[in-house]
Amino acid sequence: MKSSSLADFSLLFVALIWGATFVVVQNAISFLEPLTFNAVRFTIAAILLAVWLLLFERKQLKTFNIKMLGAGLVLGFWLFIGYGFQTLGLAYTTSSKAAFITGLSVVMVPLFTILLLRKRLSLHAYIGVVTATLGLYLLTMTDVSGLNLGDGLVFICAIGFALQILLTGKYTNQYPTLFLTVIQISTVAVLSTISSLLFENWKQALEPSILFTTEVTLALVITAVFATAIAYLIQTNFQKYTTPTRVALIFAMEPVFAAITGYIWAGDRLSLSAMVGCLLIFAGMIFAEIPANKGIKLRTKTDVRAKKGADSEV
Fold this sequence. Notes:
It is a single chain. The chain is mostly helical. It has helices at 3-20, 22-28, 34-56, 66-89, 95-103, 105-116, 123-140, 149-171, 177-199, 208-211, 214-238, 244-251, 254-265, 272-288, 294-313. The chain has one domain (3-122, 149-266). The termini are far apart.
């Protein structure tokens, strides 16, 4: 299997993990406040990754330098912005609108690629982005209403996720995967902890009656190990083999997997528009996988045959 194909399947697995854990997290934050939950989740993940680094990848420690630290801090900052503002926004807007606005990172990644990295995209990428965005709208926007403060906060969240994806693509070729992931996840843990101390009743995290409830414990184990430590390790490792735009389109499958798992586990009903939305998101992701130069190669062969025919006539 080609590296790019393996990368795409691995990142699709990450989107599956995130989508499948959505219901679990929703149950957990009814017991433990969101920022505090994130603080505990990312702290556990950071510790697990750090232990793995020290036990099995100690040689990566020799690569440490200020630039690497800066790269990890930047990635962690934008990832925290994504999670933090999404959490704050959900207090003022509906989950369906939040899901759609967060999904707009699919549009922002190619836009930032053009504006910040000065790179051109293929026509297939543009069509894939438009198709997936339309799919996100049909999947999530079942109750359209006016914009509010929460929508603005979630929009900032989308910018954070988009920049994290874009910059991950930039830094993954420069630094060791595991060490960079440890710095990134540790940054989110620290910033989430500070935010919970400032804005929430963080003492809940110290109460055994809350922390060791089945819902919270299960959610922390699943999200810290699979949806954080493993997921971001996979992203950091494999994104170097693909493009940020394709990553954004693959991650747009997260609400699709969330809808499917919600239907299976929580008995949520999928409307016709939601099912069409799922199909459009999948179609957008597949369309973006079509090689940009395929049509060019076909035209080139045709042009060569035409030129040979013209030469023989002469």
